[in-house]
Design goal:
Number of domains: 4
Distance between the termini: 64 Å
Number of strands: 16
CATH superfamily of the largest domain: Bira Bifunctional Protein, Domain 2
Helix content: 25-40%
CATH class of the largest domain: Alpha Beta
Amino acid sequence: MKSLEIRKKFLGFFEKRGHKIVPSSSLLPSDPTVLFTTAGMQQFKEYFLGKSSPYGNKVTSCQKCFRTSDIEEVGDTKHLIFLEMLGNFSFGDYFKKETTELAFELLTKNFKIPLSKLWFTYFKGEENIPEDKESLEILKKIGVSKNRIYKFGIKENFWGPTGQEGPCGPTIEIHYDLIGESCQKGKNCIPNCDCGRFIELWNLVFNEYYQNKNGKLSPLKPKGVDTGMGLERLAMICQKKPSVYETDLFEPVIKEISKNSSKPYSLNPIPYRIITDHTRGSVFLASEGILPSNVERGYVLRRILRRAIRFGRLLNLPKNFLISLAQKVIEIYRDIYPELRSRQADILTIIQNEEEKFGKTLKRGLKQFEKISAKGKISGIDAFHLFDTYGFPLELTQELAKERKLEIDIEGFKKALEKHREISRAGVEKKFGGVGREATYEATKLHSATHLLHAALRKILGSHVKQMGSDISPQRLRFDFSHPQKITTEEIKKVEDLVNQKIKKDLKIKKEEMSYERALKSGALAFFKEKYPKIVSVYSIGDPSDPSGQVFSKEICAGPHIKRTSELGRFKIIREDSSGAGVRRIRAILE
């Protein structure tokens, strides 16, 4: 059974039982406390808290997920950083009994997985939370023998919340027996044994509590259901493969690597698996408009790309090998996620730029690492130097050190990094805060114009455009932004015309003060998170003629600004060029 059929069969099963199929949400969640979407329930979080769902009270989805917590496990038979999570959800409709019965029916009847291969765990009760005896009785009633049911604590059988607070509750976990025989532990070889016999297949979460920021639990009304089953793991079982990497979701990429490597997959599959997994993750992150950088999401993308390049060297893969692998990934998913097809050129450009950039510094960086390693250990300052000068993520330095059995001063690295950030913050206030409190009227106008320019670039080029920096002089503005290729003459004219159109409309520029979290929820753009205080200023440039009723521009900013756009006169772009890999620079004036 191919992965495409598995995906359709899962969603179709729940659709026939009254569930609305909801498309996957972005990998970039609206919740500011988390970097990525890590679970299928994240896009439905508010519906578990009582808000009315526009999809009804029963939904199902196949959600793109990205989990950096599993990066060190990638390369074994089951762990991935990018995965697709199959799930069904109830917002105050059905609960434990119906959820368990549906899961049991789907696995044993529709996917024809033998009951003899399935084992079950439930919550034993811990930290003043009672044992989930109801789930135990339900499992027995549907035909699961008592010797295949085990109870575990919070770590294994209590899930959530995502972020700092939210819905959470006890779980039933369904495990698949890969081997069918006990390890040396004998009777103690049960689900969650680390011998590799079992693989966790499906997690059925019963959201009956709400956890606040202080970790305190209170009963949740209405109660909800949130389940998650990795498509890749289900494909592994249905296709009778020894690992997720042998399924049809990975095989084309593995074969492409094999064509260019003298070291066969069978001898050491781990480098193959890491490269394949990280390429998939990179393609999906790049499709969201993320660019490699040294902060937040951009750092994660840079980290996995450079890690893939590093393992590519172990397999003697040729220069720019990631491009052909990324193309294979896009081929696999382009019909499921059309955005990969429409953004293919941007995705490949982002990956190629980073591969070329790192390729130039890797050789020099490795020479520097050899000099440092001759000291017998790696200091925090040396690790930071490799990071800041040669673009080595700390994790890469750790991997190299592990190979040579060297110690790294991690705390020293963190201190050096924080000192660097403090210096950067001081510069950021001047560079990104605009023009300061003592700004001239001309500089204030130019600063306000950058907001119009930013919004126009996002309208014309796409929402992947993000401010990367700006500088204002009394005569001109300079604006750096993320974009993988040179802007055409036609695109420049469209941007210029759109800005001038908004200037002519004499739009009001409105200032509001609010919490940073509220500003993000209201749709305000913010790209320099490390500099913002708890209370921020949000500047909105409205457009009453917009049929959607939305403002044209809305950003968190330190100001100052003019009152109305008509004060700007006429906007003219005088130059557009590159400012670095994946970053373009525009210079403009007001006439």
